[in-house]
């Protein structure tokens, strides 16, 4: 009995000691990476890690001050042949261990996306156990990722968080709710045979002093902020060009991303001025049809609108006028849809997932068309129908411009 | 040392046994071959498992649910019977070793890579030995207490992922060739549904034997239903391309939960459910092995065999397969056939026994 | 059924050592008897022998000063006997004892071991010349504490009477609450040197007969010298030696004891301590307070859930904190992680050492708080709060998050109504902290599973400890975690439900 107990205790302690407390890292031995940037540098990959400086960003009462000041984030840049080699080299310049589980976004420089293609990034990001695949992907428009990751932003101490919130907010204007996540991009390229699109980001005003915290004392916020631009379209994994805002909205509608509200403002037909409305509850239905060897898609969009601004001379109180406004909104939306479809078809890039739709509904047809899908896609006949109901006119009935 | 069970505890143990290992492995095994029709192969696997177990229960019922070790000796004669019993003991230890290896693989690959796999293996073996020390009654009560919570946890976390569910990920339905679907079903049938024949060593202790068949089957179907729902959720939320490539898809599914900002990173919950299922499975295997050894050796108490079995399981878990891919490969290709052989051998002996009229001899 | 559960060696009684004065009979000569009794009881100053050797019938009274009601001796014994002795008729020695006018019971003993035992219990022994028996009158009275509010188990609403150290008062307190004739008290004695009186109380007809026989059996077989408090007996008749969880419930309140009796439990009462033992217990009963029945059912259910929650917090919160901040950084939201990191910036020790040191300091403070004299109470609270809490943080020795965690844990550990149970939580907390610091949250999960396995294996007087959760008895659920209304047993739902179980 005694021997048995001794043996058990021995086994237990062996188990515990064997672990050697491995895997434990104290919080003050970690560097929390909040954003990763990738650029091309003479055919190698330059990786930028934006890390959080806990002492400078949190407002809490810390321990005895021990270097616990300074900027909220810092960006380190390393160059290597692949991302993982850059991580390896980073361990020689970084003072602490990198923690990847809180990365909010990865910014790819435009040059890198055009020349090298984004496929090389994915394997490290997927295989590492700590990285979550729901992080946002962004392309730095006409600049490098380093430019994006080296400014201090007001209101949010952590610029990566500021970026992520911006993406959420921009859903109102661009329609792409929740941005484009890394796992979606992987799924699109390799799982669903379509070409990905990624949101773009640029700095509103370029200012060399933005990388200094002193700049935060200045009240003018435009030189320390980002703008989320339209989508960048890729052919498989290499970037080819940019969509403008209207086309981005069209893409969002077709892909059923814009289910919540976005804002539209268009010219009045007969007089000077603009009508602005808020569109919500957008539901899109895309049905593929094959008829005599001719591929056709029918896109059906339904939504509700709320009037927000009327600066032209129309009689808001009359139902006929409202019907006209509805018609105008529908026209506007149809224009956006057709512009994006035309551009996609002219470039022969299936960014909408029409191929997958065909596979879902008519798998045998898809197997026939699979080989030259780009050609078939650009020849397809796409018809759009938009149906918007104007729900309310807001807090006022008659506009001041009606006189 | 108390081994009594009632029928409700039995069905809960069957349920945890089935959910145990398969929760993390089933989507991978099925969708690897059948893509977005993984759920169809899962249904097929459940049906096949159901039929196999019905036959098993029917045969055992003819013998009044005696201990399977005694039955082997009765139907196959002393020498052959002892040989079959030794084989059953080996199979039980082997399965326990594989289950434990699976757990430590998961921990190292996905959760804490820097730690030592031995830690998790030793902890779970110690828990299993501790439970079996007090008799089978102990694990029956533990599972009776914990099962509702584990079930709620799991279903709750599945429900939280519903907002990301896209039905188009499951389309086109029935597109894959039937061969692939059957291949997906083949690997999953062995993985929990045939291994559960080890519970034959426990039937003799169940109190109300007339309700045994119904509760057993209820537990089996319920576990199968949960597995089917899991596969549907995993493939529906993530898409079959991603699922095929991931090592443990259910864990990745739980990573996608983001309903309210506080409920965002709770994949540890699924790990708890899985560890519980693995514990039940290991205890059942250990119990089967130890009672087999007790029967073969004629010893009075089964506790003597606990520690040697534990050490055997530990060393088998580490040394049979050198690396993770060899392990997965072996399981994917051979497991169903391996267990089906044992099943077929015992079933043939039982049928032969019935034909020779030995079931009348079984009595009580 | 006497179980095989109960096999510990210490419960197997050894042969009692025979004492030489055991079966010494009383002789008819009073002088020999008095000499014998004085020799047995020694020359203690409190042993008084009042001799009346010049009366026509010689008699003597022996008692222990301070333990008998001396007034009653004079009124009931001396007065009537004196009156009788002064009458003229022929007096037979056997008639002396019939002169007593008393309501107290009178026992007749013929052997000295019984006499000494009776005298030591507070009886007055009456020796009569030429009678070979000694009569003992049970007129014990001593200074006892009055019935006051129990301090260890306070409640907001409920009676404010608590048990005292005298068995007679305690039995009265119970008797007043249960007025049925089926209430029985069984006498027993433990302790070779202390010979403490033990009463086993039960309601005949409702009590579980197996438990009753088992309790009697175990009390008979205890082999120990001294028993001063019920806690010592609790340890000796426990069948699971090494478990930190108590299997007996101890209470100082008569209403709790009475409620337990009506549920079919057995109450063991001891002379000399106000704490009685209630058995068999289950795990859930440590989360139930008697007060739950005196408040409305929804409030009681809510408070019970809070108790269970605080038990879980008091075991696992420091360990969870250590596990999350050292192993599982991905589980904490980003902004919380950043502020925790900022707090840890200047702190030299790892989180485990911090938490361990703070917990130990708190345990020291708690023990000091129990033992210290009143006047310096405020000094200790000042030391605890300001010096340790504030200044340690400001000096950079610990981070504020750890202080919050430790204080929350400490407060939660006071919620349990039973001190012995929160003791188990305190011990387990330290083990969990060690496990969390070495293996992260999975070590904690394994330990918690091990704990549940352990709880399912415990038995209390042969009944499983974890009833009614496992094995699940749906009929009992109305009272375990949620308290259903008292009129629930009359609803149709309940009758359908209890028919199933």
UniProtKB/TrEMBL annotation, chain A:
GO terms for cellular component: membrane. Keywords: Germination, Lipoprotein, Membrane, Palmitate, Signal. Residues 229-394 form the Spore germination GerAC-like C-terminal domain. The keyword Lipoprotein applies. Residues 24-201 form the Spore germination protein N-terminal domain. It is found in: Membrane. One of its GO terms (biological process) is spore germination. InterPro entries: GerAC_N (IPR057336), Spore_GerAC-like (IPR008844), Spore_GerAC-like_C (IPR046953), Spore_GerAC_C_sf (IPR038501). It is a lipid-anchor. Its main location: membrane. Pfam families: Spore_GerAC, Spore_GerAC_N. PANTHER family: SPORE GERMINATION PROTEIN B3 (PTHR35789). Belongs to the GerABKC lipoprotein family. This is Uncharacterized protein. It comes from Fictibacillus aquaticus.
UniProtKB/TrEMBL annotation, chain B:
The chain crosses the membrane at residues 12-33, 39-59, 79-98, 118-136, 148-165, 185-206, 218-237, 268-293, 300-317, 337-355. It is found in: Membrane. NCBIfam families: 2A0309. This is Uncharacterized protein. It comes from the Bacteria. Belongs to the amino acid-polyamine-organocation (APC) superfamily. Spore germination protein (SGP) (TC 2.A.3.9) family. The keyword Transport applies. One of its GO terms (cellular component) is membrane. One of its GO terms (biological process) is spore germination. The keyword Transmembrane helix applies. Keywords: Germination, Membrane, Transmembrane, Transmembrane helix, Transport. It is a multi-pass membrane protein. It comes from Fictibacillus aquaticus.
UniProtKB/TrEMBL annotation, chain C:
Keywords: Membrane, Transmembrane, Transmembrane helix. Residues 1-12 have a biased composition (Basic residues). Residues 1-20 are annotated as: Disordered. GO terms for biological process: spore germination. The keyword Membrane applies. It comes from the Bacteria. The keyword Cytoplasm does not apply. The chain crosses the membrane at residues 305-327, 377-395, 401-421, 430-453. GO terms for cellular component: plasma membrane. Coiled coil: none annotated. It holds the Pfam family GerA. Belongs to the GerABKA family. This is Spore germination protein. It comes from Fictibacillus aquaticus.
């Amino acid at each position: 009995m005694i021997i048995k107990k001794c043996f058990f205790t021995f086994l237990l302690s062996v188990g515990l000691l064997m672990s050697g407390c491995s895997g434990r890292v104290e919080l003050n031995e970690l560097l929390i990476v909040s954003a990763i940037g990738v650029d091309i540098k003479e055919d190698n990959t330059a990786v930028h890690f934006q890390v959080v400086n806990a002492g400078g960003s949190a407002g809490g009462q810390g321990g005895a001050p021990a270097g616990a000041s300074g900027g909220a984030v810092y960006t380190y840049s390393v160059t290597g042949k692949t991302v993982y080699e850059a991580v390896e080299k980073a361990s020689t310049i970084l003072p602490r261990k990198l923690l990847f589980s809180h990365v909010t976004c990865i910014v790819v420089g435009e040059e890198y996306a055009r020349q090298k293609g984004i496929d090389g990034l994915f394997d490290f990001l997927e295989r590492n156990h700590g990285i979550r695949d729901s992080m946002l992907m962004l392309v730095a428009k006409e600049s490098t990722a380093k430019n994006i990751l080296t400014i201090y932003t007001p209101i949010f101490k952590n610029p990566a968080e500021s970026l992520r919130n911006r993406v959420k907010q921009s859903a109102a204007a661009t329609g792409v709710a929740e941005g484009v996540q890394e796992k979606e991009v992987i799924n699109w390229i390799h799982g669903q045979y379509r070409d990905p699109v990624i949101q773009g980001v640029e700095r509103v005003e370029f200012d060399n002093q933005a990388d200094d915290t002193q700049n935060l004392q200045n009240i003018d916020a435009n030189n320390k902020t980002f703008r989320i631009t339209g989508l960048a379209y890729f052919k498989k994994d290499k970037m080819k060009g940019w969509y403008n805002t209207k086309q981005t909205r069209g893409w969002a509608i077709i892909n059923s991303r814009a289910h919540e509200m976005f804002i539209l403002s268009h010219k009045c037909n007969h007089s000077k001025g603009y009508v602005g409305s808020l569109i919500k509850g957008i539901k899109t239905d895309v049905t593929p049809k094959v008829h005599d060897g001719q591929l056709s898609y029918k896109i059906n969009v339904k939504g509700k609108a709320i009037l927000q601004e009327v600066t032209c001379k129309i009689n808001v109180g009359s139902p006929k006028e409202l019907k006209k406004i509805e018609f105008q909104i529908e026209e506007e939306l149809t224009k956006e849809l057709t512009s994006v479809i035309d551009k996609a078809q002219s470039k022969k890039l299936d960014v909408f997932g029409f191929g997958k739709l065909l596979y879902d509904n008519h798998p045998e047809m898809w197997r026939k068309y699979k080989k030259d899908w780009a050609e078939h896609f650009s020849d397809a006949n796409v018809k759009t129908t938009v149906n918007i109901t104007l729900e309310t006119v807001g807090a006022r009935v008659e506009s001041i411009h009606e006189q | 040392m108390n081994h009594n069970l009632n029928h409700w505890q039995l069905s809960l143990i069957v349920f945890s046994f089935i959910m145990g290992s398969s929760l993390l492995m089933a989507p991978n095994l099925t969708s690897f071959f059948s893509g977005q029709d993984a759920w169809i192969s899962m249904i097929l696997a459940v049906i096949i498992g159901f039929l196999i177990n019905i036959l098993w229960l029917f045969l055992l019922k003819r013998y009044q649910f005696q201990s399977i070790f005694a039955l082997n000796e009765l139907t196959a004669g002393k020498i052959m019977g002892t040989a079959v019993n030794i084989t059953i003991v080996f199979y039980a230890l082997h399965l326990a070793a594989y289950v434990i290896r699976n757990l430590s693989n998961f921990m190292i690959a996905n959760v804490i890579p820097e730690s030592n796999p031995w830690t998790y293996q030793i902890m779970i073996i110690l828990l299993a030995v501790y439970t079996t020390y007090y008799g089978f009654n102990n694990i029956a009560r533990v599972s009776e207490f914990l099962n509702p919570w584990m079930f709620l946890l799991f279903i709750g976390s599945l429900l939280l992922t519903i907002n990301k569910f896209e039905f188009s990920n499951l389309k086109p339905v029935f597109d894959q060739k039937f061969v692939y679907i059957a291949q997906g079903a083949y690997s999953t049938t062995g993985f929990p549904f045939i291994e559960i024949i080890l519970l034959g060593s426990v039937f003799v202790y169940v109190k109300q034997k007339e309700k045994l068949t119904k509760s057993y089957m209820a537990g089996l179907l319920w576990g199968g239903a949960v597995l089917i729902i899991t596969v549907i959720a995993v493939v529906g939320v993530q898409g079959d391309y991603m699922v095929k490539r991931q090592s443990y898809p259910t864990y990745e599914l739980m990573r996608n939960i983001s309903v309210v900002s506080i409920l965002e990173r709770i994949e540890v919950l699924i790990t708890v459910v899985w560890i519980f299922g693995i514990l039940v499975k290991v205890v059942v295997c250990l119990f089967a092995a130890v009672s087999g050894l007790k029967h073969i050796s004629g010893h009075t108490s089964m506790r003597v065999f606990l520690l040697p079995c534990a050490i055997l399981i530990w060393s088998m878990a580490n040394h049979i397969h050198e690396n993770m891919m060899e392990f997965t490969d072996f399981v994917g290709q051979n497991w169903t056939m391996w267990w089906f052989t044992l099943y077929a051998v015992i079933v043939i002996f039982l049928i032969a026994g019935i034909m020779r009229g030995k079931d009348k001899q079984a009595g009580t | 059924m006497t179980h095989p559960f109960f096999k510990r060696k210490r419960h197997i009684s050894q042969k009692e050592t025979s004492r030489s004065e055991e079966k010494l009979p009383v002789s008819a000569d009073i002088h020999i008897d008095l000499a014998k009794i004085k020799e047995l009881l020694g020359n203690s100053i409190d042993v008084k022998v009042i001799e009346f050797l010049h009366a026509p019938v010689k008699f003597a009274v022996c008692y222990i000063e301070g333990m008998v009601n001396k007034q009653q001796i004079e009124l009931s014994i001396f007065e009537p006997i004196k009156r009788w002795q002064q009458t003229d008729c022929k007096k037979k020695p056997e008639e002396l004892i019939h002169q007593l006018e008393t309501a107290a019971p009178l026992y007749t003993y013929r052997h000295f071991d019984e006499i000494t035992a009776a005298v030591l219990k507070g009886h007055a022994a009456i020796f009569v010349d030429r009678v070979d028996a000694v009569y003992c009158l049970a007129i014990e009275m001593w200074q006892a504490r009055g019935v006051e509010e129990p301090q260890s188990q306070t409640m907001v609403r409920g009676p404010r009477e608590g048990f005292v150290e005298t068995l007679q008062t305690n039995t009265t307190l119970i008797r007043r609450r249960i007025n049925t004739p089926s209430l029985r008290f069984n006498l027993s004695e433990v302790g070779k040197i202390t010979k403490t009186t033990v009463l086993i109380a039960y309601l005949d007809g409702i009590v579980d007969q197996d438990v009753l026989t088992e309790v009697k059996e175990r009390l008979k077989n205890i082999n120990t010298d001294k028993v001063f408090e019920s806690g010592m007996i609790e340890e000796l008749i426990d069948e699971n030696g090494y478990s930190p969880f108590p299997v007996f419930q101890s209470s100082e309140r008569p209403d709790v004891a009475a409620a337990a009796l009506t549920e079919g439990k057995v109450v063991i009462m001891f002379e000399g301590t106000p704490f009685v033992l209630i058995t068999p217990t289950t795990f859930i009963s440590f989360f139930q307070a008697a007060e739950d029945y005196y408040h409305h059912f929804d409030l009681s259910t809510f408070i019970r859930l809070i108790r269970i929650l605080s038990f879980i917090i008091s075991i696992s919160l420091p360990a969870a904190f250590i596990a999350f901040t050292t192993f599982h950084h991905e589980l904490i939201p980003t902004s919380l992680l950043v502020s925790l990191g900022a707090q840890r910036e200047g702190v030299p020790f790892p989180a485990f050492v911090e938490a361990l040191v703070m917990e130990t300091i708190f345990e020291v403070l708690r023990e000091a708080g129990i033992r210290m004299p009143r006047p310096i109470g405020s000094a200790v609270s000042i030391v605890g709060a300001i010096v340790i809490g504030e200044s340690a943080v400001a000096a950079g020795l610990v981070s504020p998050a750890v202080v919050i965690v430790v204080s929350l844990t400490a407060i939660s550990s006071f919620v349990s109504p039973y001190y012995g149970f929160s003791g188990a939580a305190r011990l387990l907390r330290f083990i969990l902290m060690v496990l969390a610091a070495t293996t992260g949250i999975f070590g904690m999960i394994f330990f918690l599973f091990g704990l549940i396995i352990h709880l399912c294996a415990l038995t209390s007087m042969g009944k499983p400890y974890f009833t009614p959760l496992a094995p699940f008895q749906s009929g009992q659920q109305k009272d375990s975690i949620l308290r259903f209304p008292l009129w629930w047993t009359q609803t149709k739902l309940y009758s359908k439900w209890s028919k199933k179980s």
